[in-house]
């Protein structure tokens, strides 16, 4: 009896192995809802093992089965994404146009004797606030590349990132103006007189 059971098990083993191999080799098509590392990007239709789809992609809401309905649903979503991207590009072009036609100026004091050094520096926050207040252009401080605050008159360059592909370059020059309220005696004593730091803007693309 034992010998017969052993022979039967041996005979069934190859068939069982083939069935298991077929089961593991079974693949399904999925449409990705999110970017998945080493697999694809959102909207891609990919072929994966059934177990991977069933146990990970689908329950984690990373993908849906590639039915015609899901393909059409994603297609509609992708069209919306394209429209939003196009609208963003229009907005960026409008920002670029505005930046290329304005000049930002800051009023600062400098001690008369030094004639160059500012008593109050110009920093990234100043630039960001001025752009929003006077021109309605919102550029976050993190996107203003100013290694050190501007502390002197003269020519300076400040790069501002509008997005990942576009940079606005602020070329800063200084214009000196006398403080009308300061008397000659005050100036001789080292009183401050008003100066202007002008930021002219240039646009460049990478």
TrEMBL record:
PROSITE patterns hit by this protein: RIBOSOMAL_L9
A single GO molecular function term of this UniProt record: structural constituent of ribosome
Domain of life: Eukaryota
Lineage: Eukaryota, Sar, Stramenopiles, Oomycota, Peronosporomycetes
A Pfam family the protein falls into: Ribosomal_L9_N
Name of the molecule in the record: 50S ribosomal protein L9, chloroplastic
GO cellular-component term (any): ribosome
Annotated GO biological process: translation
PANTHER family given in the database record: 50S RIBOSOMAL PROTEIN L9
Stretches the record annotates as Disordered: 173-195
InterPro entries per UniProt: Ribosomal_bL9, Ribosomal_bL9_bac/chp, Ribosomal_bL9_C, Ribosomal_bL9_N
Ribosomal protein L9 domain ranges (all copies): 40-67
């Amino acid at each position: 009896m034992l010998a017969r059971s052993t022979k039967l098990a041996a005979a069934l083993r190859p068939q069982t192995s083939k069935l298991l191999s077929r089961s593991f080799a079974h693949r399904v098509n999925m449409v990705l809802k999110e970017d998945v590392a080493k697999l694809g990007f959102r909207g891609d239709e990919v072929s994966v093992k059934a177990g991977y789809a069933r146990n990970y992609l689908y329950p984690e809401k990373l993908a849906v089965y590639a039915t015609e309905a899901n393909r059409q649903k994603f297609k509609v979503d992708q069209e919306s994404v394209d429209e939003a991207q196009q609208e963003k590009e229009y907005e960026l072009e409008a920002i670029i146009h505005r930046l290329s036609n304005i000049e930002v100026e800051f009023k600062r004091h400098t001690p008369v004797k030094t004639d160059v050094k500012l008593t109050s520096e110009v920093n990234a926050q100043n630039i960001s606030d001025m752009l929003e207040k006077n021109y309605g252009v919102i550029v976050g401080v993190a996107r203003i590349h100013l290694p050190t605050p501007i502390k002197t008159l003269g020519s300076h360059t400040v790069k501002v990132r509008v997005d990942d592909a576009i940079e606005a370059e602020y070329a800063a020059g200084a214009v000196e103006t006398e403080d009308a309220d300061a008397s000659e005696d005050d100036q001789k004593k080292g009183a401050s007189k008003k100066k202007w730091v002008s930021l002219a803007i240039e646009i460049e693309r990478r």
